[in-house]
TrEMBL record:
Belongs to the 4-hydroxybenzoyl-CoA thioesterase family. It comes from Cerasibacillus quisquiliarum. This is Putative acyl-CoA thioesterase YneP. One of its GO terms (molecular function) is fatty acyl-CoA hydrolase activity. It comes from the Bacteria.
Length: 142
């Protein structure tokens, strides 16, 4: 199961070399991840209303081809791994000719906002857990 999110590269996202500044890919990953979660019928804001946040605990990015101002790209996002506690999302940034320009993964946990104490997704948000398990089944990774 993958979601695809279009992005049009804005001038302010580029560096002096005229290519997308590397940190902006993490922002794009977040946009893709948010759309993926919405495709499952959920919203981060609802989780935050319960005093829970989902920090990134690890990020990996591989740059393969430059992306430049004015290009239209696609963010492919999928659930790469989930074990009830940690969630790993995978990403491909595809250029205008459908080549993978950037790939990456981000790993997340959920924690109580006031003390950053870790929580189990399985126990705290059983509906999210079921949706994640279903998404993994659709990719054949369970």
């Amino acid at each position: 199961m993958k979601t695809t999110t279009p992005i049009e590269v804005r001038y302010q996202e580029t560096d002096q070399m005229g290519v997308v500044y590397h940190a902006n890919y993490l922002v794009w990953f977040e946009i893709g991840r948010t759309k993926f979660i919405e495709s499952l019928g959920f919203c981060y804001a609802d989780m935050e209303k319960d005093g829970v946040v989902s920090p990134v605990t690890n990020a990996q990015i591989s740059f393969k081809k430059p992306i430049r101002y004015g290009e239209k790209v696609l963010i492919e996002t999928w659930l790469d791994h989930y074990d009830g506690l940690r969630t790993v999302y995978g990403y491909h940034i595809l250029n205008e000719v459908d080549e993978i320009a950037v790939s990456g993964k981000t790993e997340h946990v959920i924690v109580k906002k006031e003390n950053f104490r870790p929580l189990s997704v399985r126990k705290a948000f059983p509906d999210w857990h079921e949706a994640y398990m279903s998404a993994l089944e659709k990719t054949g990774d369970v």
